[in-house]
């Protein structure tokens, strides 16, 4: 039975098909866990976008983390999802099994403490994440500078969500009618940056929380905008998100990092979509310290369509490997590795 939850948004005709994309890994998991796709009308489609930071990390950058792990005197620290992402060079998990010193941490502060406790080792933190993660890492770098800790380094693989939204909005082969916008990122950025998407590209944007009621409210608001033929930014998560965002967090990002071009898995090179350390903080750059050569890689893992799933062109079950060759126990691609990946969420809940 299909839900009538959206009747308050106005009658959706059978000939009307609305496609809404969520661009947050936590939303991806929540939508699958709550079974929201199953209760919506057939002509309201939810597709997953590039909301998983581990998933959008390029193959070249995954290769770079493995090359780092092989450096003498280095201890690599990372969030757990990065360990099992496959590469042509193997994986961090395999490197760890071969004796490389790779440790899972729950905060970059853990890595900084490790640097203090191991002054003769070089501690590298893999900086993966969106605007939610980068302020914390910026504050840790500032702490390291204040304490004059010389053996703490960061490999900045950060991504900025708004250039990716613009990329998706411009794509002629993706008929996206609106965006379910990320709650966590929006706590930092606020709602104003989405106005480019709603005004320039005429894509409705609604920021939601992570409970089923939050997401349904967001979908209702998107349908209402489409019915009224308007495009604006709305907040359906006012208990956490303000229009101006978190000023202090944004100042931290700006103080420590500068914007640069970045490669995304599935999306390719997106201008001004990443962060690197400013000149005054180059002493904390793992690339500078270990003289890492640039890794150029355009290959994709054989048979894996993770890149196309991240663009919303396919759903996980469209992949021939899904649930057969590729499972959480033996993942072929990062969308099945990460707990926020679309393939992982589909496998577990759908």
How would you describe this protein?
This protein has 350 residues and is an alpha/beta fold. The chain has one domain: Rossmann fold. The chain has 16 helices and eleven strands. The chain has helices at 25-33, 36-39, 53-56, 59-69, 92-97, 108-117, 134-147, 161-170, 183-189, 195-200, 212-228, 247-256, 286-289, 306-310, 334-337, 342-349, and strands at 18-22, 44-48, 74-78, 102-104, 122-127, 152-156, 178-181, 205-208, 233-236, 257-264, 268-277. The strands form three sheets. Strands 2-1-7-8-9 form a five-stranded parallel beta sheet. A hairpin with a 3-residue loop joins strand 10 (257-264) and strand 11 (268-277). It is globular and about 65 Å long. The relative contact order is 0.17. The model has no long low-confidence stretch (mean pLDDT 93).
CATH architecture: 3-Layer(aba) Sandwich
List the domain count as a whole number.
1
Task: Find the count of extended strands (DSSP E, 2+ residues).
Answer: 11
Principal-axes shape call: globular
| Overall helicity | 25-40%
**CATH first level:** Alpha Beta
Mean pLDDT: 93
Strand order of the largest sheet: 2-1-7-8-9
Q: So, the CATH homologous superfamily?
A: HypD, alpha/beta domain 2
CATH fold category name: Rossmann fold
Counted by DSSP, the helix tally is 16
Low-confidence stretches: none
Beta-strand content: 15-25%
* Sheet having the most strands: 5 strands, parallel
């Amino acid at each position: 039975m299909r839900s009538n939850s959206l009747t308050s948004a106005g009658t959706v005709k059978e000939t009307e098909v609305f496609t809404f994309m969520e661009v947050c890994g936590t939303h991806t998991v929540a939508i699958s866990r709550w079974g929201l796709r199953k209760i919506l009308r057939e002509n309201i489609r939810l597709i997953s976008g590039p909301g998983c930071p581990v998933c959008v990390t390029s193959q070249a950058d995954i290769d770079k983390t493995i090359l780092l792990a092989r450096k003498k005197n280095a201890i690599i620290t990372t969030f757990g999802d990065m360990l099992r992402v496959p590469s042509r060079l193997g994986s961090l998990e395999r490197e760890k099994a071969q004796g490389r010193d790779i440790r899972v941490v729950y905060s970059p502060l853990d890595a900084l403490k490790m640097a203090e406790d191991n002054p003769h080792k070089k501690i590298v933190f893999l900086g993966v994440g969106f605007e939610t993660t980068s302020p914390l890492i910026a504050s840790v770098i500032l702490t390291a500078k204040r304490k004059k800790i010389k053996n703490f380094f960061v490999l900045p693989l950060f991504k900025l969500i708004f250039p990716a939204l613009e990329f998706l909005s411009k794509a002629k082969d993706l008929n996206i009618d609106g965006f379910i916008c990320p709650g966590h990122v929006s706590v930092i950025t606020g709602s104003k940056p989405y106005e480019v998407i709603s005004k320039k590209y005429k894509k409705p944007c609604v920021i939601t929380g992570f409970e089923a009621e939050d997401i349904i409210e967001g979908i209702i608001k998107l349908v209402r905008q489409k019915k009224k033929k308007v495009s604006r930014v709305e907040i359906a998560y006012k208990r956490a998100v303000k229009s101006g965002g978190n000023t202090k967090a944004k100042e931290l990002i700006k103080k420590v990092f500068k914007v640069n071009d970045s490669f995304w898995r599935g999306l390719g090179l997106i201008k001004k979509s990443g962060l690197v350390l400013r000149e005054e903080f180059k002493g904390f750059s793992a690339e500078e310290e270990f003289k890492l050569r640039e890794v150029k890689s355009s290959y994709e893992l054989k048979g894996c369509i993770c890149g196309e799933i991240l663009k919303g062109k396919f759903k996980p079950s469209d992949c021939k490997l899904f649930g057969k060759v590729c499972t959480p126990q033996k993942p072929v691609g990062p969308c099945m590795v990460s707990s926020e990946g679309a393939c992982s969420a589909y496998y577990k809940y759908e």
